[in-house]
Amino acid sequence: MLLKKQEMTKLWIDGKHVPVTLLKLVPQEVIGHRTNEKDGYTAIIVGSEKKEFDRKKGEKVKYSNVFEFRVCEDVLSNFGIGSVLDFSFLDGFDTVFLKGLTKGKGFQGVIKRHGFSRGPSSHGSHFHRRPGSIGGMKPRRVNKGKKLPGHMGVSNISLKNVKIINKYSFDNESLVAVKGSVPGYYGSLVKMELK
């Protein structure tokens, strides 16, 4: 299921403030299947945000986003081609798996990127936010995986066992509140799976 990240807020639950992220359901439908006989695994192909097309020119239906979701072979028959996905299939589930793309931070140094400690600020020190030594005499090269400055963010993150707090429906919009933060910026796509 595809969702769009909205904003974070907090809910009062059992006398405590619980931070939650609101995710909005994107209009989506099943546009294909993967089967064991043909592909070696079972999955449904979901398309969202259908684009307009010209029937006179013979253009095919196009979708802005197309994703695959692995499902059991027994469940595959429940999702026919053209069926619309909604929050009804979340009934009976307390936790979900979420996948998203983190915010881009650009080029960052080792303090922000890897959490290095900084050097002294005074007494003539020239070592403030630099990484320090990056290798010894042997081997005479920089080892692979050395933590150095570079591009930060825009990486795929998976969250396991994220708790569903509540579901809301109003003004033809469906929202789900999940506990904690979710990777991505406002309006970014988040993939929800049941495991």
TrEMBL record:
<keyword id="KW-0689">Ribosomal protein</keyword>
<keyword id="KW-0699">rRNA-binding</keyword>
<dbReference type="InterPro" id="IPR009000">
    <property type="entry name" value="Transl_B-barrel_sf"/>
</dbReference>
<dbReference type="InterPro" id="IPR000597">
    <property type="entry name" value="Ribosomal_uL3"/>
</dbReference>
<dbReference type="Pfam" id="PF00297">
    <property type="entry name" value="Ribosomal_L3"/>
</dbReference>
<dbReference type="InterPro" id="IPR019927">
    <property type="entry name" value="Ribosomal_uL3_bac/org-type"/>
</dbReference>
<protein>
    <recommendedName>
        <fullName>50S ribosomal protein L3</fullName>
    </recommendedName>
</protein>
<feature type="region of interest" description="Disordered">
    <location>
        <begin position="118"/>
        <end position="140"/>
    </location>
</feature>
<keyword id="KW-0694">RNA-binding</keyword>
<comment type="similarity">
    <text>Belongs to the universal ribosomal protein uL3 family.</text>
</comment>
<dbReference type="GO" id="GO:0005840">
    <property type="term" value="C:ribosome"/>
</dbReference>
<keyword id="KW-0687">Ribonucleoprotein</keyword>
